[in-house]
Amino acid sequence: MRPAVFLDRDGTINEQMGYINHISRFVMLPGAAAGIRLLNEQGIPVVVVSNQSGLARGYFPESLIGEVHAKMNGALAEGGAQVNGIYYCPHHPEAKEERFRLACDCRKPKPGLFLRAAAELDLDLGRSYVVGDRWSDLKAAAAVQAKGVLVLTGYGRGDYEYIGPAQQVQPTHVADDLYAAAQWIVQDMAE
């Protein structure tokens, strides 16, 4: 079993715009592809884990998630990068569609997406990293005993300043962006 890097999507890989309810709203963050490429070059599996409650709330169709991920994969490929898997939670307790209205085990900070990815991709969660811009990402990291890395993109800077000080779970590392997080992870893994 190998360690992996689990990445939040919105605010970590692409600009945080609230709900990406149209393909035109997907904009990659500078350095995101380079950061993922750095991890790829080290042979570290990279897995995207994302809450997508906008689907459950009826803000966009499920097909748009596929379009966004295709656009993301295309942009990453242009930057010489790739991800090994994409997992998302479509659920929310207040979902418009009943099929999405449930108390699931996959909505971060719950560990379901990570457990599924680990089982399907033969990953060691306890030696892995979770990178995201929200405290829910850090709590998910703690739930699977991975190292949590907070990026200051997206909601990260505000969460770090206003939400973080009162939280029991704290990041193992804080990075300016995904590229800086990837650099730190590569170095940390080598120690």
SSE layout and pairing:
Layout (H helix, E strand, L loop, with lengths): L4 E3 L24 H10 L4 E6 L1 H4 L5 H17 L6 E5 L22 H10 L7 E4 L2 H9 L3 E5 L4 H8 L9 E3 L2 H13 L1
Parallel strand pairs: 1-2, 1-4, 2-3, 4-5, 5-6
Characterise this structure.
There is one protein chain. This protein has 191 residues and is α/β, with parallel strands linked by helices. It has one domain: Rossmann fold. Helices cover 37% and strands 14% of the residues. It contains 7 helices and 6 strands. A 6-stranded parallel sheet has the order 3-2-1-4-5-6, with helices on both faces. α1 packs across α3 and α1 runs parallel beside α7. The longest helix is centred in the middle third of the chain and has 17 residues. The radius of gyration is 15 Å and the shape is globular. It starts with a strand and ends with a helix. The mean pLDDT is 96.
Q: Helices and strands, in N-to-C order?
A: EHEHHEHEHEHEH
Query: In percent, how much strand structure appears in the residues?
Result: 5-15%
**Can you identify the CATH superfamily?**
HAD superfamily/HAD-like
CATH fold label: Rossmann fold
Helix content: 25-40%
Number of domains: 1
Low-confidence stretches: none
Per CATH, the class reads Alpha Beta
CATH architecture level-2 label: 3-Layer(aba) Sandwich
Which structural class do the helices and strands define? alpha/beta
The mean pLDDT is: 96
**Quantity of strands, as a count:** 6
> Biggest β-sheet: count, sense, barrel?
6 strands, parallel
- The neighbouring-strand order within the major sheet is 3-2-1-4-5-6
Provide the gyration radius in Å: 15 Å
Measured between the Cα atoms of the first and last residue, the distance is: 19 Å
With helices defined by DSSP (H or I, 4 residues minimum), what is the helix count?
A: 7
Task: Give the CA-based shape.
Answer: globular
